[in-house]
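Hi C.,

You asked whether I'd gotten around to modeling the 129-residue construct. I have! Everything is below, sequence then structure, no commentary in between.
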Amino acid sequence: MNKIEETLTRELTPYQPWISWCVVGPEQYNLKFEFKVKSQAKRESIIWKDSQTCPILEIQAKPVDGEANQAIVSFLAKSLGIPQAQIHIKRGHKSKNKLFELSFYLSKQKGCLHYLELLKKCMPISGEK
């Protein structure tokens, strides 16, 4: 395990099992994160009450014709400062429970620790900010 992988393992521990990572290839990593989606919310936000429950992603869009899924990807991409093409819904296209995957190469982008910090800012545990 290299230094980046050791840091990811240490930093993600409080967020497991809702966020995980894996090595895909040379300098290529995936971050996977799970949310329960609440559509037609008053505002777009991520709520995480504690580390024992799945985070809730509130989105304003209606769950009709993929509108909410597109709004979720757009919200996450904007929050993380990345292109929408880097975020994929891996499971739950027609469900409230969704699994997302963020793919990146360390050599071409800011790196996994940068994205991890952005995710942590989006998903504070127990009122952290």
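If it helps when you're writing up: The helical segments are 3-12, 67-80, 112-122.

Thanks,
B.
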